[in-house]
Design brief:
heterodimer; A: 348 residues; Helix Hairpins; Immunoglobulin-like; Cytochrome Bc1 Complex, Chain D, domain 2; 7 helices; 18% strand; elongated; disordered C terminus; B: 555 residues; mainly alpha; 17 helices; disordered N terminus
Chain lengths: 348, 555
C-alpha cells in the first residue's frame, strides 16, 4: 500500500528510518488535501448548477450562517491542522535529536562539492560511506556560501552554514547508493553539486574503513576528484592535536585539567556551563565551533573576552579536527559541575 | 460655462448631451499632461494598470525562457549563468513590479473611493507620487538588470548575494525605492477608509474588497520598512563589505533570513489578501447573494494580516534555527490556514440559495477556489514541520507558492479586470472568448504546476539549471502546460484590446451588481458622483426582494 502510494506520488524509495516514519504523514496530509479540494470543488459545482440564475434580476434570500456553522468552519480545519502539526513536530524533534550512540561524520560544503571526514581518519569527496542500520550524525558546515545537504531517499535535509555547524541524523535501512543534492542556491554550478551516499553492510563498511586507513589512495573512489583537497590520511584527533599546537590554542588552554587563561580542554566537551547572563549552555560541537569563530558570543561566566577569533584562520576540516581533539579529551572523572571562576588571579 | 452641445446638434451623439457637464474621467482632459499630472485616483489606477501589465509581460517572458531551458537536462537554449539570472529576474519582476502592486495599486486605487462613496482617496497627490516612486524604483531595477543582471535568486540570501560579482546593488536599491511607493499607497488607503466613508457606510457595511485592501495596507505600512532596511544593508554590504551577514566579520547569514522573511512572508499576504477581496465581490455579484458570514470574512482578513507577521520562521525549518522556534512558527502557520479556510467555506456558502450567472469572472472564481484550497492546504502540509524537511527548497515549494500566491492572485487579477472592465472603460468584451481563455488559463496553470508538485516529491531541488535524467518527463509536462497558459494570456490580450477599441457600450451596470462601486456612472465622471453626496442606506450586495420580510434566514 505504502509502496503503491509512494509510486503514485512520485516519492523516491524510502531508505531510512526517518523516511519510513514520515511517509505515513505524507500520505495522510496529501491525501486529505486532494480529498478536500475535490470536495470543495464538487460542492461548488453542484451549487453552481443547482442555484443557476433563472431571471436576469433574480432576487435571493438573505442567508447568514449560524454560530454553529461558523464554529464548524473554524474547528474542523483547526483539528486537522493541529493534529498534523503535532505528528510532524514530534518527528521533527526526533530527526533533529541524534541518538547518543550515533556515529559522527563531518560534512563540509564548498562551491561546488561535498567533503566528508570521519573521526577515524579517511576523507571523501562527493562520496559518503556509511554502514547500514546504524545511526549516523552529520555535522554540517560550509566553507563559503550557504549550501543544503539533501538526500531524497532518506527525506533529510540540513543547511550548511559558514562559520558554524548544524546537525541532522539518519539511519539508513538498505544498502545501496543514494543521491545527495544541494538545495540551497549557491551559484553557477549549484545544480552540479551532487554527491552520493553509499550504504554498506556493517562488515563491508569496516573493511572499507580499514582499507582507507591503510591509505590505498589509488583505490579510493574519490581519487579522481580533486586530490589536492584531500589531506593526508590521519586520524582527525591526531590532526587536531597538531593543530592545537600550531594554531596556539595550547598557549591559553591546558589539556591536563590545570587552570590557565582559558578553560582546560580536559573534560570540556559535553559539560554544561553557566554564562554571564545566567543562562546555561552545553559545550557541544556547535558551541566549540562558535567559540573559535566568535569567542565573545557566549562567554562562560568567569572568563575574560580575550580570545582572538579564528574565523578565516582555520578551515572547515581543521575546525572539525580540533573539535574532535577536544572531544577525545573527555574524561568523566575530572569535574562534573560548572566552572567555578577564573582560572588565575589577576595581578593586583 | 454655457452648455455647448445642446446648441451644437450637428455631430454630437445622443449620449453626449447627457454627459455634457460631467464627462467621464477618460475624456476629461485629453492632453498627455492631463494624464501624467492627474491626481484622479482612476487615472492613476489606469496608469498603474499599464505599467503592471507591461512588467507582467516581461516576467512572463522570463518564465517561458525558464520553462524552455528546463525541457532537457543540461543546456537547452542558454548557459548556466544566464539561467540563474533569468530565474532571479523572473522572481523579482513578478513579485516587486507585478504582484505586490497589482491589485491594490490598480483596482484598489480605482475602486476604493467609489466603494466608499468618496470623490477621491484621502491624499490624491501622494497617490500620484506613489506612481512615480514606483516607476523610479522600476527604472533602477531595469537598469541593474540590463547592466549585468543579478544571479542571487529573488531571496538575495547572504553570503552569496554579498559575494557575487553580478549587479546586486542597483536592483536592491530599486526594491528599496519601490517600498516607499507601497508604504505611501498603504497609508493613503488606511486614511481613506477611516475618514472618507460616505453617510451610511459603517465599518461593517464596507464592501469586503475594502476590508481586504485595508488589511493589506496595514501589512504594507508595517512590514515594508523592514525590507527597506534589509535591501540597504545588503547593498551596502555588497558595495563596501559591511560584514553584517558575513561570519568572517562577525556577522550572521541567518540574521539575514530572519529579516528577509519578516517582510517577505507578510508580503505573500500583500499579494493574496486583495485577491480574496476581489473574489468576495465577484461571488456576491454573480450569485446575487449577500456574503455568507460577512463578519467572519472581514475579521479573517485582519486575522491573516496579524498572524502573517508571526509565521516567517516556517521558511527556515532547516536553516539551523532552533527546534523550539520551528515548533512555534509551525503552529502559527496553521492559524493562517484556519483563517483562509473560514473564507473558503463562506465563499462556497455564498452560492447556497443564490442565482449563479456563469460569466468569465465567475469562471475565474472557480479556478481561484481550487487554487486556494489546494495551494493553501499544501502550505499547511509544508508547515507540518517534519514533511518540510524533505520538501524544503524543492519544486514542491515552487508549485505550492505558484498555486496559492500566483494562482490565486492571477485568478483574482483577471476576474477583477473582466468584472470591472465595463466600469473602467465603459465597454464590453466578448463573453465567449472570455470563457475560452479562462478555461485555457486554469487548465494551463494546473498542467504547469501539478507536475512540479510531483517533481518536488521526487526530489528535484529548485533553481536547478541541470538535473538528473529521471526528472525530465515531468519537466516536459510542466513546459507543455506553460505554453498552454501563455496561449490563454495571448487570447485575453487580443480580445480585451479589441474590446477597448471597438467594444459595445456597456451601460451603467451590465452585471446588475449591487456593489457600491456600481452606483455611479460607468465610466465614472472625474469626481465619481454627480450632484449631492450619495448616501448608502443598504448594505452592499443586498439582493433581497424588497417586498419580502426582512428577517434573515439562518442556516
Amino acid at each position: 500500500m505504502s509502496e503503491f502510494l509512494n509510486n503514485l506520488l512520485f516519492l523516491p524509495e524510502s531508505a531510512s528510518t526517518f523516511a519510513e516514519r514520515v511517509d505515513f504523514l505524507h500520505h495522510f496530509v496529501v491525501g486529505t488535501t486532494m480529498v478536500m479540494s475535490a470536495g470543495v470543488g464538487l460542492v461548488a459545482l453542484f451549487m453552481f448548477f443547482r442555484y443557476r440564475r433563472r431571471v436576469p434580476a433574480q432576487t435571493t434570500e438573505y442567508v447568514v450562517p449560524t454560530l454553529a456553522t461558523e464554529f464548524l468552519f473554524v474547528s474542523v480545519p483547526l483539528v486537522f491542522f493541529l493534529a498534523w502539526f503535532g505528528i510532524g513536530f514530534r518527528d521533527f524533534t526526533w530527526v533533529t535529536t541524534p541518538p547518543k550512540d550515533a556515529m559522527d561524520v563531518y560534512v563540509m560544503g564548498k562551491q561546488w562539492m561535498w567533503k566528508f571526514s570521519y573521526p577515524e581518519g579517511p576523507n571523501g569527496v562527493n562520496v559518503l560511506h556509511v554502514p547500514a542500520n546504524r545511526p549516523v550524525r552529520l555535522l554540517i558546515t560550509s566553507r563559503d556560501v550557504l549550501h543544503s545537504f539533501y538526500v531524497p531517499s532518506f527525506r533529510i535535509k540540513m543547511d550548511a552554514l559558514p562559520g558554524r555547524y548544524s546537525q541532522i541524523w539518519f539511519e539508513a535501512t538498505k544498502p545501496g547508493t543514494y543521491q545527495v543534492l544541494c538545495t540551497e542556491y549557491c551559484g553557477l554550478s549549484h545544480s552540479k553539486m551532487l554527491a552520493e551516499v553509499v550504504v554498506l553492510p556493517q562488515e563491508e563498511y569496516d573493511n572499507w574503513i580499514k582499507d582507507q586507513r591503510r591509505g590505498r589512495l589509488q583505490d579510493r573512489q574519490d581519487a579522481l576528484a580533486d586530490t589536492s583537497l584531500v589531506p593526508p590520511v590521519a586520524r582527525m584527533v591526531e590532526q587536531g592535536q597538531v593543530l592545537a599546537g600550531t594554531q596556539g590554542c595550547l598557549k591559553c588552554h591546558s589539556v591536563d585539567g590545570s587552570q590557565h587563561i582559558g578553560p582546560t580542554f580536559l573534560g570540556m566537551y559535553d559539560r554544561v556551563e553557566k554564562l554571564d547572563d545566567g543562562q546555561t549552555i552545553r559545550v557541544d560541537e556547535a558551541y566549540i565551533t562558535q567559540s573559535m569563530m566568535d569567542p565573545g558570543a557566549h562567554l562562560v561566566s568567569g572568563y575574560q573576552n580575550v580570545m582572538p577569533t579564528y574565523q578565516g584562520k582555520l578551515q572547515g576540516p581543521e575546525t572539525a579536527a580540533i573539535v574532535e581533539y577536544i572531544k577525545s579529551l573527555r574524561t568523566p572523572n575530572v569535574r562534573e559541575g560548572a566552572s567555578e571562576g577564573p582560572a588565575y588571579d589577576p595581578i593586583q | 460655462m454655457t452648455p455647448s452641445s445642446s446648441i451644437d446638434t450637428a455631430g454630437a451623439a445622443p449620449h453626449d448631451e447627457h454627459h455634457d457637464h460631467h464627462p467621464s474621467y477618460l475624456v476629461d482632459g485629453t492632453t498627455i499632461k492631463s494624464w501624467l499630472l492627474t491626481v484622479d485616483h482612476k487615472r492613476i489606477g489606469l496608469m498603474f494598470l499599464f505599467f503592471i501589465l507591461l512588467f507582467f509581460l516581461v516576467g512572463g517572458i522570463f518564465a517561458l525562457l525558464i520553462r524552455v531551458e528546463l525541457l532537457t537536462p543540461g543546456a537547452t537554449i542558454m548557459d548556466a549563468m544566464t539561467y540563474n539570472r533569468t530565474f532571479t529576474l523572473h522572481g523579482l519582476v513578478m513579485i516587486f513590479l507585478f504582484m505586490i502592486p497589482a491589485i491594490p495599486a490598480v483596482f484598489g486605487n480605482f475602486m476604493l473611493p467609489l466603494m466608499l462613496g468618496a470623490k477621491d482617496v484621502a491624499f490624491p497627490r501622494l497617490n500620484l507620487a506613489s506612481l512615480y516612486i514606483y516607476l523610479t524604483g522600476a527604472v533602477f531595477m531595469l537598469w541593474g538588470m540590463l547592466n549585468g543582471g543579478l544571479d542571487t535568486g529573488w531571496t538575495f540570501y547572504t553570503p552569496y548575494s554579498t559575494h557575487t560579482t553580478t549587479t546586486v546593488a542597483p536592483v536592491m536599491f530599486g526594491a528599496f525605492i519601490i517600498g516607499f511607493s507601497s508604504i505611501a499607497t498603504g497609508i493613503n488607503f488606511i486614511v481613506t477608509c477611516h475618514t472618507m466613508r460616505a453617510p451610511g457606510i459603517t465599518w461593517f457595511k464596507m464592501p469586503l474588497f475594502v476590508w481586504a485592501i485595508y488589511a493589506t495596507s496595514c501589512i504594507q505600512v508595517l512590514a515594508t520598512p523592514v525590507i527597506g532596511l534589509l535591501t540597504v544593508l545588503v547593498a551596502v554590504e555588497n558595495l563596501f563589505s559591511f560584514g553584517m551577514f558575513d561570519p568572517a566579520r562577525g556577522g550572521d547569514p541567518v540574521l539575514f533570513q530572519h529579516l528577509f522573511w519578516f517582510y517577505s512572508h507578510p508580503a505573500v499576504y500583500i499579494m493574496v489578501l486583495p485577491a480574496f477581496g476581489v473574489m468576495s465581490e465577484v461571488v456576491s455579484t454573480y450569485s446575487r447573494k449577500n456574503i455568507f458570514g460577512y463578519r467572519a470574512v472581514a475579521y479573517s482578513s485582519l486575522g491573516i494580516a496579524f498572524v502573517g507577521f508571526f509565521a516567517w520562521g516556517h521558511h527556515m525549518f532547516v536553516s539551523g534555527q532552533s527546534t523550539f522556534d520551528a515548533g512555534v512558527f509551525g503552529v502559527l502557520t496553521m492559524l493562517v490556514g484556519v483563517f483562509t479556510a473560514i473564507k473558503v467555506f463562506n465563499w462556497v456558502g455564498t452560492v447556497y440559495k443564490g442565482a449563479v450567472d456563469f460569466k468569465t469572472p465567475f469562471a475565474y472564481f472557480c479556478g481561484f477556489l481550487f487554487f486556494t484550497v489546494f495551494g493553501g492546504m499544501t502550505g499547511i502540509a509544508l508547515g507540518t514541520v517534519s514533511l518540510d524537511v524533505a520538501w524544503h527548497d524543492t519544486y514542491f515549494v515552487v508549485a505550492h507558492f505558484h498555486f496559492i500566491m500566483v494562482g490565486a492572485t492571477i485568478m483574482a487579477f483577471l476576474a477583477a479586470l473582466h468584472y470591472w472592465f465595463p466600469k473602467m472603460f465603459g465597454k464590453t468584451y466578448h463573453e465567449g472568448w472570455g470563457l475560452v481563455s479562462a478555461a485555457l488559463i486554469i487548465l494551463g496553470f494546473n498542467a504547469t504546476f501539478i507536475p512540479q508538485f510531483l517533481l518536488g516529491n521526487n526530489g528535484m531541488p529548485r533553481r536547478y539549471y541541470d538535473y538528473p535524467e529521471r526528472f525530465q518527463a515531468l519537466n516536459v509536462a510542466s513546459t507543455a502546460g506553460a505554453s498552454l497558459l501563455a496561449f490563454g494570456f495571448i487570447i485575453i490580450a487580443m480580445y480585451l484590446t479589441y474590446a477597448l477599441l471597438y467594444g459595445k457600450a456597456a451601460g451603467k451596470n451590465p452585471w446588475r451588481s449591487k456593489g457600491y462601486e456600481w452606483m455611479s456612472e460607468a465610466p465614472p465622471p472625474t469626481h465619481n458622483f454627480v450632484g449631492p453626496q450619495p448616501t448608502f442606506p443598504e448594505e452592499p450586495h443586498f439582493y433581497v426582494d424588497p417586498k419580502k420580510a426582512e428577517v434573515p434566514d439562518a442556516v
